[in-house]
Recover the amino acids of this structure.
């Protein structure tokens, strides 16, 4: 009794198995027609994201506010640049986060805008952990 394709396209929640995603790797899935990046961050990436002076950011937000407590290694963001809606490239740019080659917006490993014309951080979709290795988006 799974929902039909039109229901899924309209925004039914999706479940994603995280177990095949290696540390330092990310995947892209689609929810509501939007690309969702799921990154399995390394300790180094987490430490770098948390060492940033939040007041220096164009859109101040802590790394802790962008991930789920107890699952800090997982970053889940909507992969749409907040400047003009382009799709950024993961693991690119000066901060090993996301880079939008269209106009040069650079995001860090927490999906926060660091350089370029984008006005805000990459959005975090509604999601929850249904187990230690599975999330539900939506």
């Amino acid at each position: 009794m799974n929902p039909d394709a039109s229901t899924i396209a309209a925004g039914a929640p999706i479940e994603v198995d995280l177990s095949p995603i290696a540390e330092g790797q990310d995947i892209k899935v689609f929810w509501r027609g939007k690309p969702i990046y799921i990154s399995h961050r390394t300790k180094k990436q987490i430490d770098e994201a948390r060492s940033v002076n939040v007041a220096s950011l164009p859109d101040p937000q802590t790394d802790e506010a962008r991930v789920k407590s107890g699952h800090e290694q997982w970053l889940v963001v909507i992969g749409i640049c907040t400047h003009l809606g382009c799709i950024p490239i993961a693991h690119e740019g000066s901060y090993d986060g996301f880079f939008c080659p269209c106009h040069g917006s650079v995001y860090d490993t927490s999906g926060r805008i660091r350089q370029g014309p984008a006005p805000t951080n990459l959005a975090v979709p509604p999601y929850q952990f249904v187990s230690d290795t599975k999330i539900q988006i939506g």
